[in-house]
Task: inverse folding
RNA sequence: GGGUAGGUAGUCAAGUGGCCAACGACAACAGACUGUAAAUCUGUCCUCUUCGGAGUUCGAUGGUUCGAAUCCAUCCCUGCCCA
């Protein structure tokens, strides 16, 4: 059993895009990769079987905060970790709860020690410290675990962003110390990724990248983006961070994004992505297809009996028609949620596979530039 | 035939003299959603609009009144009960 390895296979002549291979004790992941979000131990509405077969997911996310509250650590530990609990033997990455510091801002207090959360389920109070979050992620047993950070909102004042970043850095030290003082629980190796913060301020981002790089972690993450800033700013900061983070380690851009965001950021050197968009927006009737974006709820699809997307290498995407999926969505049939989610995820995974193929064959940039236009089209 | 309850916008359904173009729900139509408190949320939803308003509505017709979806008369229709 060994720590995560990252092998760079190819770069790209006209961009920072690269193709690589991550090796974990639960198998290999070819990059660039998109990781479906399975917050509470489930990629919402999608069975593990479809995740493997139709979606071809290689690695998925879980969330520390949600799994800690429910089912709780006893259940997870009793199961032998999240992989066994949910029946998924490919890699898993857990987010630390840092994002919940941001999204549950109404029910938490940030202190030097950590964050006092109020459970969104029953209102009970819990302290999340860097040490506690490491312990929880040890028990959940993800292959990649994330440092506990604060994700500041957009917009943030410079002074706040700076203060927040430094807190995240101090927490990062504590995360690594505690992580290194604790052991893998289930016989395979866990890897801790630090997270760059600094809001939209380039000097803060630079400082944060340097701090994070100093940890010489198996991989590095860029956090605090796609929280409302303009797209160009996302790209610019992403580019700057990729420049300042180690070349030989995978770069993970947290929470991004739309298909075109992903292509643009692959072009800037990102290797790993995750986002709720394919699943959440799918459940809310938004489909990403090889020809553009569809709101399947719209009347225009009522009698469109053509496949959801025959350009996608997923049986479900050509087996079911737009008209049928629209009917399911309008009727609130639960199958509609699953079909939409499976399709969107299959689309995202195919997108990153194609990006990889174009990086390897050397024409990524021209392909990307064409795709970015097509994918944003509103059908 | 007699009695009785009722007929309100696509549907259900409030309103029973002015604060009513008319509560609410549903349906319909459109939008939002980026490390998931989201199978959620928002908007529109009689017609026209230069978004300030303007014009037609509450089974039909006639009437009372400064003013009616709301009161009165007649008629039409529906449910239930009795013959």
Result:
């Amino acid at each position: 059993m060994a720590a995560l390895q990252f092998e760079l296979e190819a770069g790209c002549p006209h961009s920072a895009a690269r193709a690589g291979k991550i090796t974990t004790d639960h198998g290999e992941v070819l990059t660039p990769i998109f990781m479906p979000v399975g917050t509470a131990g489930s990629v919402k509405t999608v069975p593990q079987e479809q995740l493997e077969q139709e979606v071809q997911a290689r690695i998925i996310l879980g969330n520390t905060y949600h799994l800690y509250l429910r089912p709780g650590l006893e259940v997870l530990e009793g199961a032998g970790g999240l992989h066994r609990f949910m029946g998924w033997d490919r890699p898993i990455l857990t987010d630390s709860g840092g994002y919940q510091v941001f999204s549950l801002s109404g029910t938490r207090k940030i202190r030097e020690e950590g964050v006092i959360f109020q459970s969104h389920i029953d209102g009970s109070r819990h302290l999340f410290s860097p040490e506690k979050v490491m312990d929880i992620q040890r028990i959940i047993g993800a292959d990649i675990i994330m440092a506990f950070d604060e994700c500041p909102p957009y917009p943030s004042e410079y002074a706040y962003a700076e203060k927040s970043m430094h807190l995240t850095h101090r927490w990062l030290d504590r995360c690594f110390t505690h992580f290194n003082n604790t052991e893998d629980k289930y016989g395979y190796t866990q890897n801790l990724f630090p997270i760059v913060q600094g809001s939209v301020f380039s000097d803060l981002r630079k400082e944060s990248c340097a701090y994070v790089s100093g940890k010489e972690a198996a991989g590095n993450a860029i956090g605090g983006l796609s929280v409302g800033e303009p797209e160009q700013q996302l790209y610019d900061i992403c580019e700057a961070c990729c420049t300042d983070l180690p070349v030989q380690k995978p770069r993970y851009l947290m929470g991004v994004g739309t298909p075109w965001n992903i292509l643009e950021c692959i072009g800037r050197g990102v290797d790993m992505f995750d986002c709720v968009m394919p699943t959440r927006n799918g459940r809310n009737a938004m489909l990403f297809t090889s020809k553009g974006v569809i709101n399947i709820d719209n009347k225009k699809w009522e009698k469109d009996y053509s496949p959801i997307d025959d350009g996608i290498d997923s049986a479900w995407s050509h087996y079911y028609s737009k008209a049928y999926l629209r009917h399911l969505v309008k009727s609130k049939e639960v199958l509609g949620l699953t079909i939409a989610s499976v399709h969107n995820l299959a689309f995202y995974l195919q997108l990153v596979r194609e990006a990889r193929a174009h990086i390897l064959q050397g024409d990524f940039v021209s392909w990307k530039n064409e795709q970015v236009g097509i994918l944003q089209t509103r059908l």
Remarks:
- Chain A has 15 helices and 17 strands.
- The mean pLDDT of chain A is 97.
- Residues 312 and 347 of chain A are 6 Å apart (CA to CA).
